[in-house]
Amino acid sequence: xxxxxxxxxxxxxxxxxxxxxxxxxxxxxxxxxxxxxxxxxxxxxxxxxxxxxxxxxxxxxxxxxxxxxxxxxxxxxxxxxxxxxxxxxxxxxxxxxxxxxxxxxxxxxxxxxxxxxxxxxxxxxxxxxxxxxxxxxxxxxxxxxxxxxxxxxxxxxxxxxxxxxxxxxxxxxxxxxxxxxxxxxxxxxxxxxxxxxxxxxxxxxxxxxxxxxxxxxxxxxxxxxxxxxxxxxxxxxxxxxxxxxxxx
Length: 248
Known about the structure:
This protein is mainly α. The protein has one domain. The protein is 80% helix and 0% strand. InterPro entries: TM_pro_TauE-like (IPR002781), TSUP (IPR052017).
């Protein structure tokens, strides 16, 4: 039997993406979407991740819904839900190569912002919060990457990692409902998406539980450093320059 390099690449990616998501509460899409898109294209990778992440994170979502601060989560989620359809349109009608380059530059830009030590001291006004939510929703619809915008916003306010992580799980639970509905209406849950979900789901689940265990002993500083590393690795490896590694 000849090993399919694309599937092997996707399996390893799912394992790492799950560990990242389990540890930080975000970052799974930053790893999974660009790297699995290199093998199968974003129109397969993106809806596959939505199904995998929704099913595998259910045990983590319930406790997070009790721990998150809903007055912070709800306005962001409202802005995101409104903007999701625009992101889905981009996913369906934009050249996949353009989407991948955009993901890489988005990741590098956010990394530069976080690493600069930027903090925002202003109040979380409703218009600003809705705007950030809209950016997150657009990116979520286009690439399942709604996390970076809200991560920068919450980490930039100096909140503890435990609260940021809980808020992220609550936020993603709400946005996933809107994104999944939009994908379904646009016929994006294909047989190939179902196949990839079944193949990669176990690896993602294993990574999730390993990452969650690692988070229990992590400090705020460790959490922040891990966030930097995740974004940097995803941005660099998502560049189309690496396609030859998987035979594309």
